[in-house]
Amino acid sequence: MSAALITQLNEVITALGQVDPRELGSGLAVIQRTEDLLKATNRLDAVISTQLQVLHIDRSTEIESGRKTRGWLVEEQCRSKPEASRRMTVARAMPEHPVIAEALGRGEINLEHAQVILRLLRSTPPGLRDVVEKALVDAAAYVDPSALAAFCRDVKQNLGWCEDKDAADQRRYDSRWLTISDTIEGMTSISGMLDPTGAAALKTALHAMMSKGGEEDTRTSQQRRADALVSLANRALDAGELPEVNGERPHISLTLAWEDLKRDLQHQADTLTGEFQARYAGGAMLDGTEISIATARMLACDAGIIPVTLGGDGEILDIGRRTRTWPLAILRALLHHSGGRCGWPKCHGRAEHAHHLQYWSLGGDTSLANGVYLCGFHHRLIHHSDWTITKHPDTTITVHRETATGPPGWHP
After folding, report:
1. Torsion sign (Cα): 238, 244, 245, 247
2. Residue 17 to residues 12, 20, 168, Cα–Cα distance (Å)
3. What pLDDT, in 10s, does the model give residues 101-137?
4. Neighbours of 317 (CB within 10 A)
5. Residue 312: pLDDT above 70?
6. Coil, strand or helix: which one is 240?
7. Which of 108, 119, 176 lies closest to 146 in space, CA to CA?
């Protein structure tokens, strides 16, 4: 492919990006332009598939970088594993399936459509593949890949091409996978596929822990689902039933610079000004990612945290012994008072974190009067906002927002 064509393509894309969609006039015009762009994207994917096909046949990426083409897409081009697999599946199959290749080249179907069709064709009797391929390509122009996949399953079932139920269950189970990778922004990406049995267990568990935490809970359903997954992990760690790793129970290591911790404690008695952020912008390290002092203190509320305190030069001053801050008797009493639910008023979330109402670092004791069980959402909220919890002598709980000013996570 001529480098000049790539240059022209980039110039066209740049020009397209400089056009304000509102200048097109009616919404219908914007819709039409968007459809044209999506079709062009499909056509470009067809061109890329041809390129990948050549790289695969010639083993170019193996020769130049020591990686197979799929691995090159993941490791060198930073594509997700599912996308890399999809692209290589289509690229390798295009020479044997010209109907799919031509439809993709015209922009009438996309890569996911092509992958779904190819999956069905593997189990189609050779004498019927041409007919089935054309019929599915025609259908793909009108339905999304998920609907097309459902249609393919019906075709296999009705024509008796399906394996028996036991074989199908085993195939789906063998196809499970999960990847967890850190991003450059300190986040973690999770992707994967589960068989129906595993998916049902996970979805049921997540659904049970996704309830909203009251009027102040503005999380989206996706955020609540993410928090529910973290809650499941915390429950497993708290239960103490996980296998040992390197001779000890699984734990989270939190690295906290001593000077940052000292400043964080000292500022409680200081007069806070707008310069606080510059003066006290300390942090802690959680699995190599810097987090705020407020988050570090939130984590320290829970058992199973090993604090690693560092001096100014990074030397280890103290490694805390792994203990549970709250005695079992008090935890049981707190759970009894909250009915096993979050103690925040009107929240129906599960009790997950025992929280000191007056922080331990400020002299608060570990007692029934100074404790409350919170769900994961409200535990984070109390550590990262200006909300305060009050526990009354009759064990009822009220919450209010502080009027004093200070940085996020500050409490008087």
Report:
1. positive
2. 9, 8, 46
3. 999 999 999 999 999 999 888 878 888 888 888 989 9
4. 10
5. no
6. coil
7. 119
Task: Tell me the pTM.
Answer: 0.48
C-alpha 410/C-alpha 412 separation (Å) is: 7
Cα(181)–Cα(2) distance, rounded to whole angstroms? 36
Cβ-in-10-Å burial (0-12, 13-18, 19+) of 363 comes to: exposed
Q: How far apart are CA 104 and CA 161, in angstroms?
A: 26
Residue 366 contacts residue 330 (beta carbons within 8 Å): yes
Residue tagged 């799929």 (tokens): 70
Q: For residues 309 and 380, what is the distance between their CA atoms, to the nearest angstrom?
A: 23
* 370 beta partners: none
The domain limits of the chain are 3-166, 252-401
Asked whether 306 and 314 are in contact (CB, 8 A), the reply is no
User: Element (H or E) spanning 334, and its range?
Assistant: helix 328-338
Question: In whole angstroms, what is the distance from residue 382 CA to residue 368 CA?
Answer: 18
Token pair for residue 191?
């992707």
Sheet holding 252-257, edge to edge: 289-292, 283-286, 252-257, 305-310, 316-319
Query: Which amino acid belongs to residue 245?
Result: V
Rounded distance between C-alpha atoms, residue 347 and residue 214, angstroms: 5
Instruction: Please write the tens of the pLDDT for every residue from 253-293.
Output: 556 555 555 565 555 445 434 433 433 345 566 655 666 66
How many CB atoms neighbour CB 348 within 10 A?
13
> What does the pLDDT average to over 313-335?
55
Instruction: Give pLDDT tens digits for 30-40.
Output: 898 899 999 99
Tell me the C-alpha distance between 273 and 253, whole Å.
32
Contact 369, 400 (CB under 8 A): no
Distance CA 108, CA 142 (A): 9
